[in-house]
Each structure stands twice: as structure tokens, then as C-alpha cells.
Automatic annotation (TrEMBL):
Endonuclease/exonuclease/phosphatase domain boundaries: 41-269
Protein name: EEP domain-containing protein
GO biological process: GPI anchor biosynthetic process
Pfam families: Exo_endo_phos
Amino acid sequence: MYRRIRKQLDQILKPVNQVRGSCSGDDHVPDFEPHRHIRLLTFNIQVGINTASYRHYLTRSWQHLLPHRKRIENLDRIAALLRNYDVVALQECDGGSLRSGYINQVQYLAEAAGIPYWYQQLNRNLGQLAQHSNGLLSRYRPLGVEEHKLPGLIPGRGAIVARYGSEDDPLVLVMLHLSLSKAAQQKQLGFIRDLIADYQHVVLMGDLNNHAEQLLSNTPLKHANLVPLPDTAHSFPSWRPERALDHILVSPSLEIRRSEVVSFPVSDHLPVAMDIALPKGYVSTF
């Protein structure tokens, strides 16, 4: 009996073929067009679970482990939103396990939204039970994309760094999902600060699990010279937003044309959007 149960568990926990993230490749992705403004979005999609009250954390918790027939419907709704943006940062995606019906949600959203480039970062591999991931979707071909594991007592947090434009003076987009622990956030943001220290045009976007005032005054980001959204940009919980946990922070060299928390209550987080223009004279570097 023990051996049979152990064998069944081993089959469930056996890693899916991919041990790292996946990528669409960029053969058919348009070149970056620096003369255009760029529409950015960050969204914690909670693996496609529709959460509309605190009680759903209990009553719908099983959806974090098992498939649900309405998950694809929720992903299709999200994809319809993503069609309006050029670069999208996704958090709490599944890379293809039992709970998602073995669908790589980053790839699915990219294809459903008609966005040609996608990159999935696998941060916590629980085999066929769950493939915890971040995602990048892009209409432009990046110069390069790197993934980084973020430090912390409990592993499983990561960042994706994408560079666009000029090799000598790139636009650098960092997409991440920070830990809940303040101590871990300090280590993780120290790591990020070192990554972006030498760049002039930086966008930091994702679920940062803290308010901008704290992030930019009491963490290693305090000397990064990043511009936040207004303090009133509350994104959590989606059904009654009271906390600003999701952010797009930018360098002063990037003009913010528009920014907003998008009223789109599908996940337990609301998406945050920003429209930025590159600095004057940047086009001439190409």
C-alpha cells in the first residue's frame, strides 16, 4: 500500500519537462520603435482565479491545486485587456501543471492577446502540482532578456530584466514579484538596486507587496531616483482597493503621459497601467 501511494505521489510531483522558464523566440517579433510611446501594464493574475471577496480565499482555495472549468474564460477576459498594451508584466502565472490544465498561462495569454513575444520565468517548480511563474509579454523585440532568482529565506521569487533600444543607453524594464516579508524585501531590493545602478532609463514594475512611500524611502531603492504613481493608486484587494501594492516606478528621464489603476476585477489584484514617452533626443541614438 505504502509503495503504491508513494509511486502515485512521485508521479504527481515529478517535474514537468521544463526545469526553467520558456520563451517564444523573437524571429517574428517587430523591432523596437523608439519614436513611439510605450503602453505598460503590470498584473498579478492569481493563476486565473476570479476572486471577489475575502471569503473566496477559503471557498476557492482548491483552485490553486485543481483545474476549474472557468479558468480559461478568465484568461480570455484578461487577454482582451492585454491587447491594449505593448509590454506586460505578469505575476502569479502557472507554467503548465494540473491546476492550469497543463497550459502555460504566459504563452496562452500572449497568443490570445496577439502579442508576439513572451517569456516565462519559472520560480517555484512543484512538478505537476504547480509551476509558479512570472511572465513578460512584448510587442517589440528586446535586445536581451535575463531572469534572476531573488534572495530570500524561502526560495521562489524572481525578476525578469528586458532591455530595449540602444546597447549603449538602453531602456531597461525590470519585472518582479517581491516577498511578503519586509526583511526579504530589503534583500531583494538591494539586489535589484545593484542591477539597475548603471542605467539611466529604468522601469520597475510588478507586485511589490508594499506601498511606494515605504519602497522609496525605507529600502535600498531610496537612492534609485524612481518616480512612483500617486499614493492613491490602490490595487488591492480588487473588490475594495485599499492598498497600493502593484507599481510601475520609472526614471525621471521617462515622461509619464498617463497612469492609472485599471478597473478590471478578475484577480484579487487590479492591473496598473502607464503610458511613457522616451526622453527627447533618445531616438537619435538609433
